[in-house]
Amino acid sequence: METNRQKRINKQLQKDLGEIFQKESPNLFLRAMITVTQVRVTADLSIAKVYLSIFGADKEKIINLVKMNAGEIRKQLGMRVKNQLRQVPQLQFFVDDSLDYIENIENLIK
Asked: How many Cα atoms occupy the beta-carbon half-sphere of 69 within 13 Å?
């Protein structure tokens, strides 16, 4: 079960990462639109699992670019949250396929 602190940190990281991706997408990620759909930090706040929704490009190619640039993304995140967090969590990126799942269910219902 998530604590209130984890929930607050999840929201803050989601907001800050969303802004980072919005600013950096044209330069680093082949103009793909990347949305941070969810962030989950571990209980010790050392790892953050970041779920991304990717539009406008090959998802596998973009997620590999994101993983290659994870250090730079973490650095920018650290500059934003340096007053709120003592240690910036390691970032693990995953493709959020919930929209594809919903679309598939809707097609099955029709």
From this structure: 17
* Residue range(s) defining the domain that contains residue 68: 4-109
Q: How far apart are CA 32 and CA 95, in angstroms?
A: 13
Give the tens place of pLDDT for each residue, 82-96.
988 889 999 999 998
Q: How far is CA 6 from CA 37, 64, 88, 102, 105, in A?
A: 16, 27, 13, 27, 31
Burial of 74 per CB tally in 10 Å (0-12, 13-18, 19+): middle
What CATH number does the domain containing 18 carry?
3.30.300.20
Number of structural domains found in the chain? 1
Q: What is the pTM of this model?
A: 0.85
